[in-house]
Amino acid sequence: MTKGQRLLRLFPWFSLLGFFGFLGLLPKFNGHPNYFFFIFFGFFAFFFYYHLEKDGVDERLLENRKRAAAVMLSFFTLLSFALLFLLDRQVPADTVLLVGSLGYAAGFVLAPALTLFFDRKAY
Q1: What is the CA radius of gyration of the chain?
Q2: Is the distance from CB of 96 to CB of 87 less than 8 angstroms?
Q3: Which one, out of 22, 42, 115, 122, has a CA that is 20 to 30 A from the CA of 108?
């Protein structure tokens, strides 16, 4: 078994780390919100990566990854500008952390999900 095949078998188990995102609902020891843990929801992306690569990688999949990457580049650029805008408007840091954590986690999950969508649409 090659290293890539062993890693591929672990991908669905990596997605279980996404449940650590629910720790963001628990407050810190001083009672303040703990929004940083929401970024762990991004680990759910490994579920989609597993489904994408279990049948092997071909040219169509690589092309669909490029299309999804182009869409996600604009998403992350807009998210970065939104975070900078919120910081410029002196929005509370907890709100910026919440938007950033959830936004980046959504982006991490959306990238393979878009690739899977483009791959299914091609059939």
Answers
A1: 17
A2: yes
A3: 122
Q: What is the pLDDT of residue 4?
A: 53
pLDDT in tens, 40-51: 999 999 888 888
Q: Are 95 and 33 in contact (CB under 8 A)?
A: no
- Assign 5 a pLDDT band (cuts: 50, 70, 90): low
- CA–chain centroid gap for 97, Å, is 16
pLDDT at 50: 83
Q: What's the pTM?
A: 0.82
Give the list of residues 6+ apart from residue 109 with CB closer than 8 angstroms, or none: 41, 42, 44, 45, 48
Q: How far is CA 49 from the centre of its chain?
A: 11
What contacts 16, CB < 8 A, 6 or more positions away? 43
Which candidate, 58, 23, 50, places its Cα nearest to that of 109? 50
Distance, in Å, from the CA atom of 76 to the CA atom of 96, rounded to the nearest integer, reads 15
